[in-house]
Amino acid sequence: xxxxxxxxxxxxxxxxxxxxxxxxxxxxxxxxxxxxxxxxxxxxxxxxxxxxxxxxxxxxxxxxxxxxxxxxxxxxxxxxxxxxxxxxxxxxxxxxxxxxxxxxxxxxxxxxxxxxxxxxxxxxxxxxxxxxxxxxxxxxxxxxxxxxxxxxxxxxxxxxxxxxxxxxxxxxxxxxxxxxxxxxxxxxxxxxxxxxxxxxxxxxxxxxxxxxxxxxxxxxxxxxxxxxxxxxxxxxxxxxxxxxxxxxxxxxxxxxxxxxxxxxxxxxxxxxxxxxxxxxxxxxxxxxxxxxxxxxxxxxxxxxxxxxxxxxxxxxxxxxxxxxxxxxxxxxxxxxxxxxxxxxxxxxxxxxxxxxxxxxxxxxxxxxxxxxxxxxxxxxxxxxxxxxxxxxxxxxxxxxxxxxxxxxxxxxxxxxxxxxxxxxxxxxxxxxxxxxxxxxxxxxxxxxxxxxxxxxxxxxxxxxxxxxxxxxxxxxxxxxxxxxxxxxxxxxxxxxxxxxxxxxxxxxxxxxxxxxxxxxxxxxxxxxxxxxxxxxxxxxxxxxxxxxxxxxxxxxxxxxxxxxxxxxxxxxxxxxxxxxxxxxxxxxxxxxxxxxxxxxxxxxxxxxxxxxxxxxxxxxxxxxxxxxxxxxxxxxxxxxxxxxxxxxxxxxxxxxxxxxxxxxxxxxxxxxxxxxxxxxxxxxxxxxxxxxxxxxxxxxxxxxxxxxxxxxxxxxxxxx
Length: 720
Hints:
By secondary structure, this protein is of the alpha+beta class. α11 packs parallel to α12. The longest helix has 38 residues. Pfam families: HATPase_c_2, PAS_4, SpoIIE.
């Protein structure tokens, strides 16, 4: 055996051949570079017999180098276990595989070639020249620079090694579909076609705590190999016919205990299934003549059946007793992986349901909104705390909110839901964006207080949030941010770019770092676009964060005024999102519309005794001009009279009266310089204090207060 150490720039092929040489003979240049000489070289074979390996060493390793066209360039398959596996220089590697495996393996090879990420421990069959097959564990590695291509390492599978490798491969994903697919691929070592059918409750992640009553409702979760199937055959994602589910559940639950069953020939299959329709649904072709069905059982009292694994063979390959034992052992070992994936599927579904519930439904009549949310990975661990929301405020304005909660999974989702609902409630109560962020900051600090018992091992410190409030009358937007990336503003005429918000620490920062939140106000005329987003959209390892924001600005600027906003948002994400994401991607785009000039009027009145009468006259003239009904007009005049009189009595300063004609009603606003909050009192007949607010309360559909830098605004809405 050649013990010469490999060079420092050794390729994966060299490392497999040299570092693990004690498991496989290496015959010098002829074997190490198969393309340079015939692999059947007599001198090389004489070396094997002249210097045999120790008897206690099982020779199980081999290596094959491929070029970028997936053709063999060199190989080392001299271990006796690979006898009959005929590698030929220049021939496609997939020529060593059963035809049914070619599409799947080709896809895996090209994936490693494109991404550079290895594919490890795939259970695979190789064809021998005599028609028999060898089961191996196949790993695909990218060639070391400067070489191009791939190295495929092959480990001949002894029984125990096969079971270990299969269980290891099955347990690498938390996605239930991928887990079922890995199990089906591992079972293929014992058959020609394998399938995994899961109980519908398992597939959807529902709780499975006891033996369900009646039959299982099965859905096909995985099918191997990947090829065209006969018409009527059940493929992944399809539900098995009700009769088929009933037959399988009855068969594996004989005497109330889940057991494997074997149907040894085609005649028995047709007799058991009973109808041509079920034969077409469950039999993967005319050559399939024998099947073993193994239940996936979750240990417990009583045990719970999660589904059924099926292994099909041709008529000339009956199942031996030892093979049935191996199949049952493998399925038994991996059932807990399926249940673990079910639990994560359940969490994944819950988190996504919460996030989609927080996505904007409608922005109201004065603004158009569209949002996109894409989790970083399909499994539940990859679902993060990104959230966006847009909603009309009771006073006619619209709030746009985006946040990014630290962490993933249910802990982040619970915090995300709490912060989102709290922000909506506070904004609807009339608080300014900076005041809302102050409350959210306190909430995050409270959630991280271990003594409060709310944290439960999860910390939301450092979460970020950005709030924008759009006034459709003045066309002004107020924005406040807690550690979040700045929104992108694209005005109808003028340069586009990020809004100039002063940086601020995230929510829950230490007391010494806390500063008052700034509110940045700017004009967004009708037709303007405002984009709020989370960092997953613009963070690309190949670019700086500023370059990512610039790319987003260009993409949003390309949205045409007549483009449908939903499709435009999808295009922006497709153009900007990093190809290999490490974080969730969230985008909210808003198109400002506002009110028409003829739908709103504002008056400024001096705080004098005749202010209420003057306001009634002005409002009455405008309502006549708008053609408002007499009943609505009387209600509006009474409310305006009461609110202006209260402003003169309790506040003073200049009084602003604004009337807005909305799509479904009227909105009246009275602003003053006072800081007292109007409240409904007991309202007795002889109690004058607060009695006017009872009048307002009875005549309006809704009323409230919002605070401004100079005082407050009391607003009231009416139906027309």
